[in-house]
Write a structure and sequence with these properties.
66 residues; alpha+beta
Length: 66
Amino acid sequence: MAAPQFHENHILTETLAFNLLMGRRWPPAEQDLQEAETLCEELGLGDLLRRMPAGLHQMVGESGWQ
């Protein structure tokens, strides 16, 4: 389902974990990674996350995962 967006989204060419946890300490603690994974599951992104070869450590960018 597509929905119009009225703001710009910014995805940095970095790992999914980096983009999700931006603003927190880096490198992330295991607890931070677990929280990010749980959030993805709650948002219905679990299947997508499992399809990514490196999971949360998959490189992503403006055109999707790389």
